Amino acid sequence: MYSSSPNSMTANGSDSKKQRLDESPPSRVLHIRKLPNEVSETEVIALGLPFGKVTNILMLKGKNQAFLELGTEEAAITMVNYYTAVTPQVRNTSVFIQYSNHKELKTDSALNQRAQAVLQAVSAVQDGSSPSSDPGVLDLAPPPSPVLRIIIDNMFYPVTLDVLQQIFSKFGTVMKIITFTKNNQFQALLQFSDPVNAQQAKLSLDGQNIYNSCCTLRIDFSKLVNLNVKYNNDKSRDYTRPDLPTGDGEASKDHSLLGTPSGALASYSSGGGYSSSLSLSQGGGAISPLSAAAAAAAAAGRVALSGSGVSGVLLASNLNEEMVTPQSLFTLFGVYGDVQRVKILYNKKDSALIQLSDGNQAQLAMSHLNGQKVFGKVMRVTLSKHQTVALPREGLDDQLLTKDFSGSPLHRFKKPGSKNFQNIFPPSATLHLSNIRDGIGEDDLRLLFSNSGGTVKAFKFFQDRKMALIQMSSVEEAIQALMDLHNYDMGGNHHLKVSFSKSTI
After folding, report:
1. Which one of 196, 241, 347, 379 has the minimum C-beta count within 10 Å?
2. Which residue, 208, 193, 389, is CA-closest to 288?
3. How big, in percent rounded to 5, are the helix, strand and coil portions of the chain?
């Protein structure tokens, strides 16, 4: 759906006004639309920073829009071209960027005072002079390091390594994290793959609360430029090296570089970079609204990761009892962990117990699936008090309500270091398809997915045509299609693989 022709003037082109907007010639002023409420000037400027000097900004807050002026037309063209291939996001919301009809911005400084102050700091730093003396303006010096030092104030709830990874991975690839306690304060060192990502994370998150009115992030650049992680456990993690040991359980003395391994990590180390159900800050409030499930998962995370047996069993309720089967729950929950057993309750058929390999997988599934609409009803997912799902005695389960999947070949996370660990995303309307058989075309796949009861909005093959993205008209339709069509037999021993995608078409 992305056009590579020079006439394509919009980034993130999935918009009904696209035809009219495409006619705008290149300009160093960019029009940004569909911004989330309460977005700050700093976050909008951060979109343009990697491409060159930002010379002016005008926020239209009532309309969720902004104009951003770059120093040169070339910088603006580079920015639009980049965001044509990579959907621009602010606070986990896709935004729409196009060339403006204005050739430059004339702004009334009295009305636009705060934006001008932020901009003055950027310009001063980029020109090499001292930034504005206004203490309310954020420092935007060129990023010295890809490593951030994070201190958490008012820590009333536990903040785990996984919670930090979820929050910071919105800004780029998180490679390593080390957590430790210093001066009775929880601290962390977090390394991005690129210093620009570290700068954008610091700009957006410094001073924000993770939960309402507590767990405040204080962020600085670290003097270190590379972290040396020895163990993958609940205190330190190197996402580039899933093969690292968990450590021997003895606390390390060197806090600044090692992290403190305490307790072994379960076999599932939450992989690399799953996307989060945490959404970025609403104004001065919390980085949430964090769903209750994610908060529970975050708070329980410390317990689970230290290996003190949090159950791997979930209770799913408010299910559509006419439609739900053990197989459909196995497929859906199997996106987030290896489902061992499923039992639909005999006396309460709108509820089911789902047993995953361990507590970490269960929490991950709960944080992503609680509150999703499945077969027309909003599903509730909580941790169960059961430690395992019991199988019925032979001959007693005549309604086939219980199924053992422990030997299933469809488990996504059996192989340590599997690529599937890096591709765990929340339910989304866009699905990623792989293992597509030769000779299967776009029309075949559109028809197959329409038959699952949904409407296909967009489709895009990857270059090798073995993989594709397909966009349904809602998340509920995509969930339905995934349950119906994951492992669909396409003939010739090719079974279609379906997962949620972080991309939009």
Report:
1. 347
2. 208
3. 25, 25, 50
**247: nearest Cα among 306, 200, 206, 174:** 306
Cα-Cα-Cα-Cα dihedral sign, residues 122, 123, 127, 132: negative
Residue with tokens 């086939």, as numbered in its chain:
400
For the full predicted model, state whether its pTM sits above 0.70: no
In which band, very low, low, confident or very high, does the pLDDT at 417 lie, cut at 50, 70 and 90?
low
211 close to 157: Cβ distance less than 8 angstroms: yes
DSSP labels, 365-405: HHHHHTT-EETTEE-EEEE-S-SSPPPPPTT--TT--EEE-
End-to-end Cα separation, the chain, in angstroms = 6
CA distance 196 to 145: 9
Q: What is the DSSP pairing of strand 209-211 with strand 339-344?
A: unpaired
Token pair recorded at residue 215: 């767990």
pLDDT in tens, 158-179: 788 888 998 898 888 899 999 9
Q: Smallest Cα–Cα separation from 297: which of 281, 282, 276?
A: 276
* Residues 404/259, Cβ–Cβ less than 8 Å: no
Angstrom distance (rounded) from CA 459 to CA 155 = 45
Residues 199, 13: Cα–Cα separation, whole Å: 27
In whole angstroms, give the CA distance from residue 100 to residue 3. 19
Torsion angle in degrees (nearest 10) through CA of 308, 332, 388, 359: 0
Give the model's pLDDT for residue 285: 39
Residue 63: DSSP 8-state? G
Take residue 400 and report the two structure tokens written for it. 């086939």
Radius of gyration of the chain (CA): 24
